[in-house]
TrEMBL record, chain B:
Pfam families: ABC_tran. Keywords: ATP-binding, Nucleotide-binding, Transport. Coiled coil: none annotated. It comes from uncultured Mycobacteriales bacterium. GO terms for molecular function: ATP binding; ATP hydrolysis activity. Residues 2-234 form the ABC transporter domain. PROSITE patterns: ABC_TRANSPORTER_1 (PS00211), ABC_TRANSPORTER_2 (PS50893). The keyword Ribonucleoprotein does not apply. This is Pyrimidine ABC transporter, ATP-binding protein. InterPro entries: AAA+_ATPase (IPR003593), ABC_transporter-like_ATP-bd (IPR003439), ABC_transporter-like_CS (IPR017871), ABC_transporter_ATP-bind (IPR050166), P-loop_NTPase (IPR027417). The lineage of its organism: Bacteria, Bacillati, Actinomycetota, Actinomycetes, Mycobacteriales.
Length: 253, 257
């Protein structure tokens, strides 16, 4: 009955207590702002800069979204092809593993020099690469994990490879795809913010954080960090909502 | 309808398993044949061979006058496996519709047929539910409805009533014999229950294990099934006959003495 209230209320209460404790800790121990600013100071910066926070969030969010969509589509398509053709599979999987072992974010400065400094493309490219891997791996795992009985059932209907993919492989893989997407949604925002740390356009959350920090405006830097957290949360929640919509049989229980 | 000649099936592996050997059997069109035998004697394997879901390592299979492969490609049979094999992501009704969908039936017709079959297995009010919301026996009944959906000339059923309560079981047995008789469907049916085998079939094929082979074939010959069939003395005589065959003995029928 009140489980719903508890589910939302308890985390909120925990958050409020956490902020209160943080404030008291800073005040009681007279901690310097460059170490840890007070939540109240951060809040003041947040409200003062709200317009700029919203516009920079929108820019960084757009980069994250574009990269997420492109990377996710590419990852899923690659997984579909890999699951259908053994040759592609044996080529792509080691390659994907190698790409994943690489700290992709380290490519950001290189991409920056590849494109003009007024371009958002390098950032979106970083996000795309970061997103690609978890989707590829999860989608492929889902596509491969077919129950033998479903294979036999579709064989008994003399169904071809694509029919099988459409009726069994893809729907069966959806839960895995969404596990990957939830993971990738948070990663996309992190990548989009961090990619801005390496120069290029001065118009996103990441650039505001670095410039505030280098100007010793610590509470302001923290205000933008808080915005980045909120953006990450929005992406995660959107992915979760999409998951509920697309795989109702898993959430109806 | 089904002709099996010298069928053998050996699973190769670290140790080879001889699942079937020397199976010769002919099932006439419209006949109801039940396979019974100890666990692991190759009943499911035999059904899979007929369905062309696995290749025999010896012998030939003819189904509906064609090779087993051609019969499968022509979708000549409907099959219910030992597990229900429903798809979590489809509703109960959409699971039943699946074979119709693949045959290109339009939505309306598909839906009507699915509801008709769900009615038959007593699950009409669960049409919109998810398989995960159903009990094991209910899931099994959905799988039966799915196997019947296309009104196949040949039904292959692997312990479809295994998970059902006695009442539902007897009702579905009666329904199945009625459907099979009215539509002239040939049925190959696997069961562990002797009374079920006797009630359903024209012939009971008794199998023995290691290696899986036909130990005996019991002609049931009980005529049309009614509510009284299960209490008839001939019924019990056939049950005894099958039981003895399972034990490796044969009984001489009273009328043949
Ligand atoms: N895919 C497989 N690979 C290897 N061995 C198998 C395979 N399928 C079945 N077997 C073996 O073949 C034998 C017959 O199996 P099968 O499933 O046909 O038995 P069954 O008569 O249907 O048993 P039950 O009554 O328990 O369902 C068993 O010994 C089993 O271990
Ligand atoms: Mg079996």
């Amino acid at each position: 009955m009140n489980t719903r209230a508890a589910r939302i209320g308890l985390p909120v209460l925990a958050g409020v207590l956490f902020l209160l404790g943080w404030e008291l800790l800073v005040v009681a121990n007279d901690i310097k702002p460059y170490l840890l600013p007070k939540p109240s100071a951060i809040w003041a910066q947040l409200t003062r800069n709200i317009d700029d926070i919203l516009t920079t969030s929108a820019r960084t969010g757009t980069n994250a979204l574009v990269g997420l969509v492109v990377g996710a589509v590419a990852g899923i398509l690659a997984a579909l092809v890999a699951s259908r053709f053994r040759v592609v599979d044996s080529l792509l999987v080691p390659l994907a593993a190698a790409v994943n072992a690489m700290p992709i974010i380290a490519l950001a400065p290189i991409f920056n020099t590849m494109f003009s400094t007024t371009s958002a493309v390098p950032r979106r490219l970083v996000v795309t690469l970061v997103v690609f891997f978890p989707l590829f791996v999860n989608a492929l795992r889902g596509l491969r994990q077919v129950e033998p009985i479903h294979r036999e059932l579709l064989d008994s209907y003399a169904a071809g490879g694509w029919t099988f993919a459409r009726k069994v492989r893809v729907p069966g893989a959806l839960p895995f795809v969404f596990t990957g997407l939830r993971l990738a949604a948070s990663l996309a925002v992190i990548a989009a913010v961090v990619a801005e740390y390496f120069g290029g356009l001065q118009n996103g959350l990441g650039t505001r954080i670095t410039s505030a920090a280098s100007n010793t405006a610590y509470p302001r830097a923290w205000a933008y960090v808080a915005a980045a957290c909120a953006l990450g949360l929005v992406f995660y929640l959107a992915a979760t909502a999409l998951e509920r919509l697309a795989t109702p049989w898993r959430t109806s229980r | 309808m089904i002709e099996l000649a010298g069928i053998g099936k050996t699973f190769r592996g670290r140790t080879d398993v001889v699942a079937l050997t020397g199976i010769d059997l002919t099932v006439a069109a419209g006949e109801f044949v039940t396979f019974i035998g100890p666990s692991g004697c190759g009943k499911s394997t035999l059904l899979r061979v007929v369905a062309d879901l696995t290749d025999p390592t010896a012998g030939t299979v003819t189904v509906n006058g064609k090779t087993a492969r051609q019969a499968r490609l022509d979708q000549d049979y409907g099959i219910a496996f030992q597990q229900s094999g429903l798809m979590d992501w489809r509703t109960v009704a959409r699971n039943v519709e699946l074979p119709l969908e693949l045959r290109g039936w339009d939505r309306r017709r598909r839906r009507d047929r699915a509801l008709e079959l769900l009615e038959l297995v007593g699950l009409a009010e669960f049409a919109g539910s998810r398989p995960a919301e159903l009990s094991g026996g209910m899931q099994q009944r959905v799988a039966i409805a799915r196997a019947l959906a296309t009104d196949p000339k040949l039904l292959l059923m692997d312990e479809p009533f295994g998970a059902l309560d006695e009442m539902t079981r007897e009702r579905l047995q009666a329904e199945l014999t009625r459907i099979a008789r009215e539509s002239g469907t040939t049925v190959a049916f696997v069961t562990h229950s002797i009374p079920e085998a006797v009630y359903l079939s024209d012939r009971v094929v008794v199998m023995s294990a290691r290696p899986g082979r036909i130990a005996a074939v019991v002609d049931v010959g009980l005529g049309e099934r009614t509510d009284d069939t299960r209490e008839a003395p001939e019924f019990f005589a056939r049950v005894t006959e099958v039981r003895e065959a399972l034990r490796g003995r044969t009984v001489v029928r009273a009328e043949e003495r």
